[in-house]
Write a structure and sequence with these properties.
The chain is α/β, with parallel strands linked by helices and 281 residues long. Helix content is 47%, strand content 15%. The strands form two sheets. It has a five-stranded parallel sheet with strand order 2-1-3-4-5, sandwiched between helices. Strands 7-6-8 form a three-stranded parallel sheet, with helices on one face. Helix 2 links the parallel strand 1 and strand 2. Helix 3 packs parallel to helix 4 and helix 6 packs across helix 7.
């Protein structure tokens, strides 16, 4: 980037910030003035100023709408969707699919995108990483989708990311919040993007909140889903707690499989250890 471009960009940002601040100050001042005026109106003065300004502008001749290089394909835009529609995880992801369907219906009713309708090709992974990867490969090679969006667990996201990068297909991940996704698995992403926050943000604030709520707690236990997300959350939480409570002790850990429905044995194990706080991951 040239020095002129850098200076121009800096000036632009500075000007934008200055304008925003000025808008806030003026808005606040106007509000104050309005209240002050209402509080003590002593005299009203009306001044009318009339000024006429004539400006001549020569508009360029209208030009026909240009067509992107290579033209616009006539077929629909195919969006592959992999999400969890069966099993316990469906309650988390089915609402997202319904929202997507509503939005696509709205876009198509308005003529689509550049005249192209959007077509969804939906696959159910059931929350299983191997099934998720298989669906992705089929969507790309057989269905010939243009893009893929994935409502995924962290385990699915970590399994899928390398495959998506190799396929050179834009892939948007919803959920899949494990820290390791972009710190260990896909460290130089080009085609994979995640639209959610990631575990560190939740876990750090969670640990701080625990300490604020129970400042005298020293014995901690966890009941967590036995997969990448549960372990990632617990590792970060305990790392922070050890800073806040140097003499903390982990008295019990229970790791039921993801989407388990019976926690009786795990609850009994944890309560027997007599913890001050039980974390659920």
């Amino acid at each position: 980037m040239s020095e002129e471009a850098k200076i121009s960009r800096r000036k632009f940002i500075a000007g934008t910030v200055a304008a925003a601040i000025a808008g806030i100050v003026v808005g606040a001042g106007g509000t104050y003035a309005a209240f002050a005026g209402a509080r003590a109106p002593e005299k009203t003065v009306t001044t009318t100023v009339t000024k006429t300004v004539t400006t001549t502008v020569t508009a360029p001749a209208a030009s026909p709408t240009t067509t992107p290089a290579g033209g616009i394909p006539s077929g629909p835009i195919k969006l592959g969707v992999i999400t969890i529609l069966t099993g316990p995880g469906a309650m988390l992801f089915d609402p997202g699919l319904k929202a997507l369907e509503i939005e696509v219906e709205k876009i198509n009713a308005q003529g689509g995108i550049l005249g192209r309708k959007v077509e969804l090709v939906v696959k159910d992974s059931g929350g299983k990483p191997d099934v998720c990867v298989d669906h992705f490969k089929r969507l790309v090679t057989e269905e010939k989708v243009d893009y893929v969006t994935v409502g995924a667990t962290s385990a699915e996201a970590c399994a899928l990311a390398p495959i998506a990068e190799e396929s050179n297909v834009l892939t948007i991940i919803q959920e899949g919040t494990a820290t390791k996704l972009f710190e260990e698995v896909d460290t130089s992403p080009k085609y994979v993007f995640r639209i959610n926050n990631y575990d560190a943000l939740d876990a750090i604030s969670h640990a701080i909140a625990i300490h604020q709520a129970w400042p005298d707690a020293k014995k901690f236990a966890v009941i967590g889903a036995d997969y990448v997300w549960g372990h990632d959350e617990w590792e970060i939480i305990t790392t922070v707690l050890k800073k806040l409570v140097p003499d903390m002790e982990i008295v019990a850990e229970a790791w039921p499989p993801l989407f388990s429905t019976d926690y009786s044995a795990h609850i009994s194990k944890v309560l027997a250890a007599k913890p001050d706080v039980v974390e659920l991951c």
